[in-house]
Amino acid sequence: MSSQSASAEGSSTDLISLTVNYVPSKFSGALLEPSRPRRRRPKNAMSGVGAMGIPRGGGIDAFRTGEARIPGENDEDYDGVNVSKSWRIGNKFFRRTKQPTKLRWNTFKIILFVSNAVFSVYTLITLILCLLTWFDVFQNADVIRVGNRTELIFSTLAATFGLLTAVIGWAGILLNNRGFLAVYTFFLWITFAFLVVPGYLTYKKRTFNLEGKLNAQWSRALGAEGRLRIQNRLQCCGWFSPFVEATISQTCYARSILPGCKLAYLNLQRHILKKWYTISFGLVPLQLGAIIAGLLCSNHVTYRFGKGMMPKRYQLNSNAMKVIVDNYTNEIAEQYGRDVASDVIVKSGMQSYGSSLVHDHSDSNLLSSPSPSRVGRREMSTMADL
């Protein structure tokens, strides 16, 4: 029975707001005088009223002085901006629904949109070119697949990863999700690394002793099958002649009149490698622009960082208000008596939380402090949540 009661106590304290530990000893004016007007009433940002009579706010002005920081019920609309206006007459609240304001993209979101659109375009084009090369659509695509396989693999990986990054970026931009945009900005750096690798490999291969590297590749790396594919595509036979490292085929044999493959293969590699690293390094400024835009704008995709509201675990709820009101009335009752405490609760408009105290003055247990064991369990549970 003790374990069951303890578990029930723990589950009930889980529903109590963590704000209980941080409220001051005296209530603020907003709680004691709900009818008192706020210092600032925004013209554009509309606010609602919660179940406890606390003004609820949000919108793009949530960080201004005097603005309510607690969201409304099921507040999942655009950036926490409510679309209704409410006012209080006596003890009743009235709400008038207004036409939603026209949603506007800020400058940061427009920059993100443009940069990610450019990033998506060139990554998609790069991926299409890589796939066409793998599928042997171009005239000399098979030569590239044999002689530049490493560079082609890195280019395809960079384009694929870049397209995935662009999709994550679109999700973050259109959903105003800063978590997606953080991943998007991080993946932009990885895409940048994949982008410069094929450019570095092709530049290094072409600039430093390309002829010697192709000699070694033809004699050691390609093998008979690789040499045969290059011979068939370039219409040549052997390296220098049909008698030097040639793969026998229907067009390449001892008495073949076809020239050697060195000159044609060397000229093709010079042309392809120069185009390759030019495109790769030419995309670097665009990639750096996308990275800078992500770093500077991903946290400002809306008018403010986050929803500008108090986290849900720290919002005042009914259970938390009951605990606060009980402690408050106990302190007043110990000093001034039960009648004074009852009058204070009624005047403050929180009789719903102290109704038992108001209607039953003879019950002394309501004004007595809670048991030490219960207070200890409550504090231990609250500290565990923290």
TrEMBL record:
What is its membrane topology?
Answer: Multi-pass membrane protein
Per the record, the major location class is: membrane
- Reading the lineage from the top rank, the first entry is Eukaryota
Question: Which stretches of sequence are listed as region Disordered?
Answer: 357-386
Task: List all Low complexity biased stretches.
Answer: 364-373
* Protein localization: Membrane
GO cellular component annotations, sorted alphabetically?
A: membrane
Question: Mind listing the UniProt keywords for this protein, alphabetically?
Answer: Membrane, Transmembrane, Transmembrane helix
List the transmembrane segments: 110-132, 152-175, 181-203, 276-296
Q: What is the name of the protein in this document?
A: Tetraspanin Tsp2 family
Organism classification? Eukaryota, Fungi, Dikarya, Basidiomycota, Agaricomycotina
